[in-house]
Amino acid sequence: MSSSxxxxxxxxxxxxxxxxxxxxFWSNSVDIVFNIQWAKDLQNKIHEFLKNNIEWLGIAHxxxxxxxxxxxxxxxxxKMLDFACGNGFLTxxxxxxxxxxxxxxxxxxMIKKYNEAAIELGLGPEKMYGVRGDIFAPTPTKAGDVVAxxxxxxDLSREEFFNxxxxxxxxxxxxxxxxxxxxxxxxxxxxxxxxxxxIDRVEPEPGSESEGKEGCGFKGHHHQHHHYQHHHxxxxxxxxxxxxxxxxxxxxxxxxAAHTISHKxxxxxxxxxxxxxxxAGLTDVDILVTDWTVxxxxxxxxxxxxxxxxxxxx
Length: 314
Prior knowledge:
single chain, about 325 residues, alpha/beta, Rossmann fold, about 30% helix, about 20% strand
């Protein structure tokens, strides 16, 4: 994805890399980031957490075997938006509860992976599809207008990209220079009563066990299932089974990856999340924090817990 850096650099692109360069980097990195065992293990762990907390999210009664599946048409069904979708991280868990799943990412390579995931899941384009787009792009004023942004993509002002029952963003906010504006833009695409979910690294509470713990001192990882690392190759290390050539490729990408992370917002306190959700018009806000930690060895203070924050649009 790199949906973490949509086309307006001052808004969402991390310092040190233009949005276009970031998009190109992550598009070209898909064959690396999805094949590192450490990243796969992290994705599996988060998936398990999500599946164990579906009732908490509150979408289980509106999809799958319920009204969303049996309505026979979109008007009576439910649809979800997987923003900064990558290879369909959230969609893979939640697609049974919706009749339509839409992925949005600024990186064309990630959208290719998302649409490949639809085939893997046995879902046709009427059920699951991804588009390359930027939620901060100016809205065309008339038919034929060209949107002048650093990354050209789908016009997301169209009706099909609004009135979602569920919008989720997983481990991408820390790549945004203005995460609150991103949340506001995403909540605008929810229908009244819809559910919003954000997942990211939580700022340790003062005095907590994880406060002050350091990773290995390197910088550089990407959101969601795109987080990856480089160590000297070890048989049981994070690149186990990847082969020296693959690991060397990951190392070559590391210095560029560091530039896609926001210097201002690389993790979030519980209160900060509540405040951002409230200002975006969300109520019934609840935050779950994992009782397990995630170690990001290439990130300063890289031992972290994750937060899973839910809110509902008024």
